[in-house]
Write a structure and sequence with these properties.
The chain has 499 residues and is of the alpha/beta class. The chain has 15 helices and 22 strands. It binds NADPH dihydro-nicotinamide-adenine-dinucleotide phosphate.
């Protein structure tokens, strides 16, 4: 039977090229558990060829003036916006995220970052510094690109991750070989074609497909200068270790188990809305999810009541229906993992199941029953030692933890090896800043959750990552500094002079 999409090949040196491995895998529509396309797997020879193409392109692209680079990246952002719905439709089929989400967030926030860095470099953002050292001597600095870089993406925000990595990489004058997650590979070729159409020279952005072994080959390749990785902490550690073997630069965007502290004075509706966005948006498959929700003990009854009322607004259903705001999990393997955590929460951790649990969402249409759907799930009266409270589940599973004092909540919030995100809900301005200041996380929010605009540098503390993406800071890790001292005195200050 013909699949909905044609076979995906590789894309390097400016065009689609067949893989030589003779091997393929299938990408699956998680809403229905049916295959979407065959994907050709890159062989080592194919990866070498893509890296060589990126290496050749580097000599041209790195010398392309900022304004000219910016014009191409801006054109790519325009093309992405023009094709928003078409791309979002494929993202929905590939990732299982509702079209209400992919059509308003995924492509848009990717194009925003492209536009942001195009404007940044076009406006002189990569200029160096000049210092007059003394009357006849100067120091000037230059921000030089690194070379061929590798981008490795997770499956939860496929094209957005590809754009967050490639926009800054290319703006800084580097070239990239990108590997999408094997669970959501369809966007890779589309993005490469858009870049080419926008005028990007052949070889500047390349895509190779495959699973972890393709990623491992890329990250240990001697011709690669930097690896930008998004994925789990455990994989990130392997990737950083392999990159360190040849002294590559790394940016690591990893997982989290982020705390959301609701203070006693918080506005109840806002707090519940924040907790729901922090747990059920994208069916809980967001790295910054606030899955540990700390609530004042004396707020238990109203908080749980309002949460249960609002859970009725989580609407699983056909992904292209404009009422649907909750999709399936993105793959069978992930579906089984999340169900196992829910089972563990009930049977081993013995947390109180307030809502959801095992089984499919209510009223799910018959034709979606085979898909990887789970219920939005809330455990309450949780304790810090439970496995569901300690480990990243990456699904729609909220743990409510009650506390007596805000200081206690902060201490418990920080008692984790991860430090990706954190947030606080309070009407007290001073308390908001005091609590945020004490929370050990790289991305923090006050009275909101989840927004991550191009201007905001984001990255994790502790085991949640290394470096940041986006914002002015985000581009600094894609360039290397060169400092030059120029002496105009006409004489070298030597100690080896005749006595
Ligand atoms: P994984 O770590 O399983 O995979 C991430 C990517 O790494 C995939 O492309 C994967 O390939 C590839 N990979 C696997 N093994 C290796 C290896 N040895 N060397 C190089 N690459 C390898 O993460 P998931 O895809 O499951 O993504 C979910 C995770 O990502 C969550 O932990 C989430 O928190 C995190 N994440 C972090 C974000 C952040 O900005 N901090 C943003 C989004 C997600 P393949 O899948 O094809 O096997």
């Amino acid at each position: 039977m013909a699949l909905p999409f044609p076979t995906r090949q590789l894309y390097y040196d400016g065009q689609v090229r067949p893989a030589t491995s003779g091997k393929t895998f299938q990408t699956i529509n998680p809403a229905t558990a049916t295959p979407l396309a065959d994907i050709q797997i890159a062989s080592h020879a194919d990866i070498d060829a893509a890296i060589q193409a990126a290496d050749r392109a580097f000599s041209v692209w790195s010398k392309t003036p900022y304004i000219a680079r910016a014009r191409i990246l801006q054109k790519a952002a325009t093309l992405l916006r023009e094709r928003n719905d078409e791309i979002a439709r494929v993202e929905t089929l590939d990732s299982g995220k509702a079209f209400t989400e992919t059509s308003t967030v995924d492509v848009v926030t990717g194009a925003d970052v492209l536009e942001y860095y195009a404007n940044y470099i076009g406006g002189g953002g990569l200029n160096g510094e000049t210092t007059q050292l003394r009357e006849d001597a100067w120091v000037y600095t230059k921000k030089a690109p690194l070379g061929v870089c590798v981008g490795i993406g997770a499956w939860n925000y496929p094209i957005q991750i590809a754009l967050w990595k490639s926009a800054v990489c290319l703006a800084a004058g580097n070239t990239m070989v990108y590997k999408p997650s094997e669970f959501t590979p369809l966007h890779g070729e589309t993005l490469a074609q858009i870049y080419t159409e926008a005028g990007l020279p052949a070889g500047v952005f390349n895509v190779v497909n495959g699973a972890g072994d393709v990623g491992a080959y890329l990250t240990s390749h001697p011709s690669v200068a930097k690896v930008s990785f998004t994925g789990q902490v455990s994989t990130g550690m392997k990737v950083a270790g392999s990159a360190a073997g040849s002294m590559k630069y790394v940016t690591m965007e990893l997982g989290g188990k982020s705390p959301l502290i609701i203070c006693p004075d918080a506005e109840l509706d806002n707090a519940v809305d924040g907790a729901m966005m922090a747990n059920f948006y994208s069916t809980g498959q967001v790295c910054t999810n606030g899955t540990r929700v700390f609530v004042p003990r004396n707020m238990k009854q109203p908080f749980e009541k309002r949460l249960l009322e609002k859970l009725a607004f989580v609407r699983a259903g056909p992904l292209f229906d404009d009422q649907t705001n909750f999709g399936p999990l993105s793959s069978e393997v992930h579906y089984k993992k999340v169900l196992e955590y829910i089972r563990h929460g009930k049977d081993v951790d013995r947390a109180t199941l307030l809502a959801g649990g095992l089984g499919k969402p209510e009223n799910l249409p018959h034709d979606l029953q085979a898909g990887y759907w789970v219920r939005p799930t809330v455990f309450t009266d949780c304790t810090d030692d439970m496995r569901i409270v300690k480990e990243e589940i990456f699904g729609p599973v909220m743990s409510i933890l009650y506390y007596d004092t805000v200081d206690e909540a902060v201490r418990r919030a920080n008692a984790t090896e991860m430090g990706l995100a954190a947030g606080v809900f309070t009407k007290d301005l001073n308390r908001a800043h005091r609590v945020i200041d004490q929370l050990q996380a790289g991305i923090t929010w006050v009275n909101t959750w989840g927004e991550s605009p191009a201007e905001m540098a984001v990255g994790g503390w502790k085991k949640s990552g290394l470096g940041v993406e986006n914002g002015h800071k985000g581009i600094e890790s894609w360039v290397q500094n060169k400092s030059t001292l120029v002496d105009m005195s006409g004489a070298v200050a030597t100690v080896f002079a005749k006595l």
